[in-house]
Design brief:
By secondary structure, the chain is of the alpha/beta class. It has 14 helices and 24 strands. Strand 8 and strand 9 form a beta hairpin. The structure holds uridine-diphosphate-N-acetylglucosamine and phosphoenolpyruvate (PEP). It catalyses: phosphoenolpyruvate + UDP-N-acetyl-alpha-D-glucosamine = UDP-N-acetyl-3-O-(1-carboxyvinyl)-alpha-D-glucosamine + phosphate.
């Protein structure tokens, strides 16, 4: 297993290109199952999660071709010869559940393994299932699999999500494009990845209104066609690399960065004393003098502060001046990085959904272990600003969501290298 060696090396200066969003690409790829015609995604990130989704789609009979160094994914789902998404693939990546809605809508039946929980929480899929039932799906749970049928096709319905779920909104939105009549999704997620999905579906011929607001209305159509769609910028990769100069000092320009993707996060950085400037090519982040100020953070659905940046923000707060309280409201177990940061000299207390971080002037490098994707990158960020060497093990988590992390940070002056096979 690979690990990453980081050595604290002072301020960072330079430019980092931001890739297409993993979480958008993982919902755009299953959209290919809705149409017999090809769907091509440009600006796709090169990540292990994308390879896992490729394997899943191929197992269902889709063809996926990577071009231009893997940045373009040409997909075709002319004939789906298998309607069963196996546990062996689904357990590796929860986003696999997103094949359920499209397959059911187009084929009238699908069998998809339940994903199970993961390190950050139980993460049930009940809302995905309830929304599909509201469109007339008949569902049965057998031996860990969802057996779904809609013999006469799905029918439009009204469904109000009891809590905001990104994945359930995506599954329901895709299914509704081929349902008969009108579907209204209330209390829908408003994340930029939902907007990107709706724009792609519209390019394929879907009739959708309201994406980005909490009520989305979909008028079902008989069939969808092919399309070419660019994957939206990865706002979580963007926020992660914005934190690198905030933690280490210096100035880094994030190419392709947009403030509207991360407004709440940008506001918090500025409150902490970090400058965020819109440039011709993206966003520039700068911290010149002294420590940042401690700021409190509450994670919320978009447009609130994203849970996927909470671990990285905690790494920044570890060396802030003062005490910060981070409240995690999306996932019940998303503070697994705290004990690892404590091994590096951070002063953190975790009580249920709250973490209190008392800033220390400097952290010290240590061997640490990544427990999930964002935890792993938070440890790398902390290591960049710590004294001495930090070795982050279990970086297969990191490879799910960050491409060429060593190269991107290294180009700005970070001392970071991958140690293979440890
Ligand atoms: C591949 C992808 O896009 N992953 C993102 C997606 O995950 P994902 O789509 O899994 O997250 P959700 O928005 O669905 O989860 C939000 C909350 O709702 C709960 N819930 C969700 C569905 C359900 O049927 N029942 C239920 O109770 C979850 O356990 C969680 O507590 O949104 C999360 C919240 O922004 C991000 O952290 C993930 O990076
Ligand atoms: C939690 C994440 O991903 P997933 O939903 O695929 O586990 C993430 O991207 O931070």
């Amino acid at each position: 297993m690979d690990s990453i060696l980081v050595t604290g090396n002072g301020p960072l200066n330079g430019q980092i290109p931001i890739a297409g969003a993993k979480n958008a690409c993982l919902t755009l790829m299953p959209a290919t199952l809705l149409s017999e015609e090809p769907l091509t995604l440009t600006n796709a990130p090169r990540l292990s999660d994308i390879r896992t989704m490729t394997t899943l789609l191929e197992s269902l009979g889709a063809e996926v071709t990577r071009m231009q160094d893997g940045k373009v994914l040409a997909m075709s789902s002319h004939d789906l010869n298998n309607h069963r998404a196996d546990y062996d693939i689904v357990r590796k990546m929860r986003a696999s559940i997103l094949v359920l809605g499209p397959m059911l809508a187009r084929e009238g039946h699908a069998i998809v393994s339940l994903p199970g929980g993961c390190a950050i929480g139980a993460r049930p899929v009940d809302l995905h299932l309830r929304a599909l039932e509201a469109m007339g799906a008949e569902l049965e749970l057998k031996e860990g699999y969802v057996h779904a049928k809609a013999p006469g096709g799905l029918k439009g319905g009204i469904y109000e999500f009891p809590l905001v779920s990104v994945g359930a909104t995506e599954n329901a939105l895709m299914a509704a494009t081929l349902a008969k009549g009108t579907t209204v999704l209330k209390n829908a997620a408003r994340e930029p990845e939902i907007v990107d999905l709706a724009q792609c579906l519209r390019r394929m011929g879907a009739q959708i209104e309201g994406e980005g607001a909490s009520t989305i209305t979909i008028q079902g159509v008989d069939r969808l066609g092919g399309a070419t769609h660019p994957v939206v910028t990865d706002r979580i990769e963007l926020g992660t690399y914005m934190l690198a100069p905030a933690i280490c000092g210096g100035r880094v320009e994030l190419l392709g960065g947009r403030r509207d993707l991360l407004a709440a996060f940008c506001d918090k950085l500025e409150e902490a004393g970090v400058s965020v400037e819109e440039t011709a090519q993206g966003l520039a982040v700068e911290r010149r003098n002294g420590r940042v100020k401690a700021v409190d953070v509450v994670t919320e659905p978009f447009p609130g502060f994203p849970t996927d940046l909470q671990a990285q923000m905690m790494a920044l707060m570890c060396t802030a001046e003062g005490t910060a309280v981070l409240e995690e409201k999306i996932f019940e177990n998303r503070f697994m990085h705290a004990p690892e940061l404590i091994r590096m000299g951070a002063n953190i207390e975790v009580h249920g959904g709250h973490a209190t971080v008392h800033g220390v002037p400097k952290m010290k490098g240590a061997p640490v272990m990544a427990t999930d994707l964002r935890a792993s990158v938070s440890l790398i960020l902390a290591g960049l600003a710590a004294e001495g060497e930090t070795v982050v093990s279990r970086v297969y988590h990191l490879d799910r969501g960050y491409e060429r992390v060593e190269e991107k940070l290294g180009a700005c002056g970070a001392k970071i290298e991958r140690i293979t096979g440890q």
